[in-house]
Amino acid sequence: MALAFLIGQSPSPLGQLMTFDMQTFRTGGFRFDNAPEPVADFRFIAPCEIAASDLVVDLRDTVEAPIPIISSAQRMTVAQLSQWHAMPDAGQRAVFACRSGLRAWQAAIHLRSHWGGEISLIAVGDMPQTERQSL
């Protein structure tokens, strides 16, 4: 992709994500260069940035993540969150975690519709293949 960019190949590889799984020899990818930029109301943080005072909601189920992101995290789906009426305390940050960040973003948008506090997101990533096989 770097070489394609350097020689000016058309279409440009910029704005494209490609994946290659060397274990299964599968490829994938998508273009995002025409996607609108999201409103930068929420920021992604690393799991090590979770504070003890944060209200953490892990949006992964126990099959996807047998161990929550932190032991005090509440677990729920985005659908359950739409019926959840709890509010973070004043000055408390809400943190939503999921695999890719998409469900966390959806949960944040829902919470933002009726709460104006700080909201952060965590994209945990995939569980390593070796851990998935042992489940």
What does this structure look like?
- The protein has two domains: 30 residues, no CATH class; 91 residues, Rhodanese-like domain (Oxidized Rhodanese, domain 1, 3-Layer(aba) Sandwich).
- The chain is elongated.
- A five-stranded parallel sheet has the order 3-7-6-4-5, covered by helices on one side.
- By secondary structure, the chain is of the alpha/beta class.
- The protein has four helices and seven strands, in the order αβββββαβαβα.
- 19% of the residues lie in helices and 22% in strands.
- The C terminus is likely disordered.
- A hairpin with a 4-residue loop joins β1 and β2.
Write the layout of secondary structure elements.
Layout: H1 2-6, E1 16-21, E2 26-31, E3 43-44, E4 55-58, E5 74-75, H2 78-82, E6 94-98, H3 102-112, E7 119-123, H4 129-133
Parallel strand pairs: 3-7, 4-5, 4-6, 6-7
Antiparallel strand pairs: 1-2
Rg result: 18 Å
Regions with little confidence, pLDDT below 50 for 5+ residues:
129-135
Write the element-wise H/E pattern from the N-terminal end onward.
HEEEEEHEHEH
Widest beta sheet: strand line-up: 3-7-6-4-5
Distance between the termini: 36 Å
Instruction: Bin the helical content.
Output: 10-25%
Task: Provide the domain count.
Answer: 2
Q: CATH H-level name of the largest domain... which superfamily?
A: Rhodanese-like domain
SSE-based structural type: alpha/beta
Could you say what the CATH topology of the largest domain is called? Answer: Oxidized Rhodanese, domain 1
Indicate the mean pLDDT: 86
